[in-house]
Design goal:
The complex is a heterodimer of chains A (184) and B (276). With 184 residues, chain A is mostly helical. Chain A contains ten helices and no strands. Chain A starts with 16 loop residues before the first helix and ends with a helix. Chain B is an alpha/beta fold and 276 residues long. Classes of the chains: A mainly alpha (184), B alpha/beta (276).
Chain lengths: 184, 276
């Protein structure tokens, strides 16, 4: 049960119709469609920041799933558990990112541990991110990646709150996949 | 983008009339009402100041005319004076069911005689019983009483006939009637019932797509729409399929969005049903 009406295709506003052209556009689009002028700028932004880019898909899904778990977003954790698995993360890695198991035995790469330490600091705040956490990541990845990852955490937090506040329902296909993989 | 909207209106890409939904409530509950208007629905008024501001911005953007509709706009106590103010900004047509023209209200409408303003009144059938079947008791009598009084004041009156179908004989009798009331043939429009709003429940009217409706920017309390036939209500819920933007102020935002939508229309996707 959603906390807001999810607009069906028949009620899709004119600017939102392209997002329905290939069938069910998903709960985020169906909610944003209520304000089509926001939808048509939000979706390219979300797609650019969360989608394929110069950063590895594995890195991005680690960031998104960890952020979503720390923010307690059921919709995003479930949806990005599937995305993380598709990006090559193992079930154990997913469980660790979801705070269902300790990080340390599963994640051993120093770069990924630095990333996770930094993600927790950025996502949870409040206040400045410890300089040590930022510089550890910056020295490994450089400024462009640091900027993009910071925006990725920020966009994920925005979506976490959007999906949680509106109680958006997880897609049935995602729920079925999680059950099939023992990650429900 | 402001210049692009003005150019599009000038070259005919965008219609020049901006429609404003003054309110949604009405003293009637017509069988085919697009907005399920009635005495007990939420008013959702645009408001006097906002209406004036939108009209002013419309003029600055290059729109050439205004349309005011509802609901029944004349239920708003400030409507006669507002109409005169709007007509001072751009030529205007105000849609009405024609049942609200008391002596006092008629007197307050006198200034319209000197302004580019018209009142478009609904009259569907030439005989009272047939007309009132769709529009409610006493509608015919009130309308044929009001029209000559408005005409007598020098106010331009148009008549809109909304029907699923009409026989040649009925059309002739209806035209005889409006001529007797002082309304010229050029000011009489016959249009189909649109299958939206209450017409859906009563299984009336024709299905429409955006291609059937002129892309006349329409502003309501709920957002901006493709056409005055867009912001319909069914089952108490606003239809959003012809919503353009929720943003209505500044007006250039929905105007620019509408222009983009119009330019995306495939060739030949123009008006088919003479819906005005």
């Amino acid at each position: 049960m959603s906390g807001v009406q999810l607009l069906p295709a028949a009620q899709a506003p004119l600017l939102a119709r392209p997002y329905y052209a290939r069938g069910d556009p998903g709960a985020i689009v169906a909610a944003l469609a209520h304000v089509p002028e926001v939808l048509e700028v939000a979706m390219p932004f979300i797609g650019t920041v969360l989608g394929p880019s110069s950063l590895e898909a594995r890195t991005k899904e680690i960031v998104i799933l960890r952020t979503s778990a720390r923010l307690g977003c059921r919709f995003c954790v479930q949806t990005h558990t599937v995305a993380a698995r598709d990006a090559g993360l193992s079930p154990d890695e997913v469980r660790a990112l979801r705070d269902e198991a300790p990080l340390a035995p599963t994640f051993v790469d120093p770069g990924e541990l630095a990333l996770l330490n930094w993600v927790d600091a950025v996502a949870l705040g409040p206040g400045p991110v410890p300089a040590a956490a930022r510089e550890a990541l910056r020295s490994l990845l450089g400024d462009p990646a640091l900027v993009e990852l910071t925006l990725l955490v920020g966009a994920t937090v925005m979506l976490n709150r959007f999906c949680t506040a509106l109680e958006l329902p997880t897609a049935p296909g995602v729920v079925a996949r999680l059950a099939a993989e023992g990650l429900a | 983008m402001t210049a692009a909207v003005a150019a599009a209106i000038q070259d005919g890409t965008l219609p020049g009339r901006l429609w404003l939904y003054a309110n949604y409530h009405c003293n009637l509950t017509c069988a085919y009402c697009l907005t399920e208007s009635g005495p007990k629905v939420a008013r959702r008024e645009l408001g006097r100041e906002r209406t004036l501001a939108l009209a002013q911005e419309a003029a600055e953007l290059g729109f050439t005319a205004l349309g005011l509709t509802g609901g029944e706009p004349f239920l708003l106590p400030y409507l006669p004076e507002l109409l005169a103010e709007l007509a001072g900004i751009l030529p205007i047509v105000c849609l009405s069911n024609g049942t609200m023209f008391t002596r006092d209200r008629l007197d307050r409408l006198r200034p319209l005689a000197e302004l580019p303003a018209a009142i478009q009144i609904s009259l569907d059938r030439p005989e009272p019983n047939d007309n009132d079947l769709m529009r409610g008791p006493e509608n015919f009598r009130k309308v044929v009483d009001a029209i000559p009084k408005l005409v007598g004041l020098g106010v331009r009156v148009r008549i809109a006939t909304t029907v699923a179908s009409i026989s040649d004989g009925e059309r002739e009798r209806l035209c005889d009637l409006h001529r007797r009331l002082g309304v010229a043939d050029a000011d009489h429009v016959i249009r189909p019932i649109i299958h939206r709003g209450r017409a859906v429940d009563n299984r009336l009217g024709v299905q429409v797509t955006p291609a059937d409706l002129p892309a006349e920017l329409t502003i309501t309390a709920d957002g901006a729409f493709w056409s005055p036939f867009g912001p319909t209500v069914h089952g108490g819920r606003l239809d959003t399929d012809l919503l353009v933007t929720r943003t209505t102020t500044p007006l250039r935002v929905p105007a620019a969005a509408l222009l983009r939508l119009v330019r995306d229309q495939p060739p030949g996707a123009d008006t088919q049903l003479n819906i005005r």
